[in-house]
Fold:
Amino acid sequence: MRPDPTLLRELVDASPGFGRRAVPAPPSEELLRETEARVGPLPPSYRWWLSAYGHGRAGRAEIATAGPADAYESLTAPWRLDGDRLCFAAEPDCGDAYHFALDGAGEAGAGEYPVVLRDGADGQEYPVAESFAGFLAVRAALLRGLREGPNPSVARLWRSAPGVLLGNGVHVYGPHVLQERNTAFEVSRYAPGWTLVGDDSGGGGLFMRHHGRDRASVHRLGLGAIGGDVAAAGEPVTDDLIGWLRAGAVLRG
Structure:
């Protein structure tokens, strides 16, 4: 899924544990071209971060900026490019480091790279996200105690984007919204075992199970009618959240 810059800004601004310093003006196109001449094309969502904040961190991970090549915090510092791995964020004191996998194509497409983690203790590499925007969403979820997501389908979405808001009003929440909405509608009380993952902007909620065998099906139910058996009371929508969103998230009725 392509990350929405508006949702991405909302995620960053609402996430505890994120530090950012707004820049008075975005990096010049000349500086960005100089950076790309050294390290290759920059992912669009990372370019967005540089333009919006320039400097910052996600949890303990300090995010590189566009700056002089000899500066430690610059993306063009010589130590950051290691073959087909480009380190864009690192934790202090030899902690974990996060790299763009330049030899891969992120699910978000359009120039995004997958993100991998190199363990600061043993150097092992682990997949993290399908884009820089997904890296921010995953970090925000972990910092909120949501792990990678309430179920595998939402976790997969967050690895690419901080939620989705379509023109027809369908809104699937990012980690900065999901917790608040579930608390507001007391979902854990009235529909234990279910998570409100989004809404249709017309009073209908989109629900998925967060445990059990079926954690792929999405059901729509009025937000004023939340009850224990969501599957029986609601309308089945899809069993493929990502595919449904890509197809425009058409709802009946």
